[in-house]
Amino acid sequence: APSMAIRPYRNELVVVYGSGDMDDLGDTVRKNFVVSLTERVDPYPLPPEQTVDRTCAPWDDSTCFRANPSRGKQVGPMVNFKHFFGYDDRLDPLPGALLGERMMGPSVIYSSTAYFTTFVPDPSRPCEPGIGKIWGVAFADHEGGCDTFKSALPDGSNPENLVNYIVIGDGNDGAIPYGLAVTARPVCYQGQSIAEAAGGGLFEGDPLVTGSGGGSGAQIVVQTGIATGAPMEVPAQGTTQRFIPQAVTNIITAVESLFVSSWGALFD
């Protein structure tokens, strides 16, 4: 299913979708892709001084535009990026790439970033799950060529370094990523864990959510076929257990504020 969001400051609809067979995980023949399109509205006929951005040709086909002369408008898709996993823009296999990578569900657009998961089987390990990835790319932009993503996912070892994806699991154990969700953990005092903030740890008695807290932020939670990381935090009380293996990674949330620095009045 496609994911949709409004492009900031332009009020244009952006659609992100891709392909992939989640039932036949061993398939290495199909060439799967992910694409981002903007619904572009332009004047009709187009004034000579105005040109439509066609930098993503040949995917930006002018024949896809539909004109409405009575309203003086034309509407059509503009490609933001289109990427075939494991292939270049001529659909030739990339050197060293594992073939058969596919999306494992719809993307989630959050804070101008498209997050999604992919899976690719590894023929060298037929008895193990293949390689899973968590992706985070700018949802309506590209970098360099139109098949090149603009990185938006913080690297696990250095949050200030942005990458296209991170691999789930390790070199010995792969993973099959399924559902992806963006969640927000509570603000905890001085970075303590949820269990500590609930009253069972070092800062017993401190409130769970405080204005001077730290350690809050958005996270990506992905269900995986096998356990791929350290157990997540559990409530301080109760018998809640995690039965579904999952992988979690932190993401950066862009916060924009509008404030008035001065006031003035104009009299005529």
The residue-averaged pLDDT reads 78
CA-CA gap between termini:
56 Å
> How much helix, percentage-wise, in residues?
under 10%
- The percentage of residues in β strands lies in 25-35%
Order of strands, main sheet, comes to: 1-2-3-5-4
Low-confidence runs of at least 5 consecutive residues: 200-215
The number of distinct helices, counting runs of at least 4 residues, comes to 1
Strand pairing plus helix content: what structural class? Answer: mainly beta
Order of helices and strands: EEEEEEEEEEEEEHEE
The rounded Rg comes to 23 Å
Shape: globular
Largest sheet: 5 strands, antiparallel
Give the number of DSSP strands: 15
Structure commentary:
The chain has one helix spanning 194-200, and strands spanning 3-7, 12-18, 33-43, 66-68, 73-84, 102-103, 108-110, 113-120, 131-138, 153-154, 162-163, 165-168, 177-185, 217-224, 246-250. With 268 residues, it is mainly β. The strands form 4 sheets. Strands 1-2-3-5-4 form a 5-stranded antiparallel β-sheet, with no helix packed on it. Strands 6, 7, 8, 9 and 12 form a 5-stranded antiparallel β-sheet that branches. Strands 13-14-15 form a 3-stranded antiparallel β-sheet, with no helix packed on it. A hairpin with a 4-residue loop joins strand 1 and strand 2 (12-18). The longest helix is centred in the C-terminal third of the chain and has 7 residues, at 194-200.
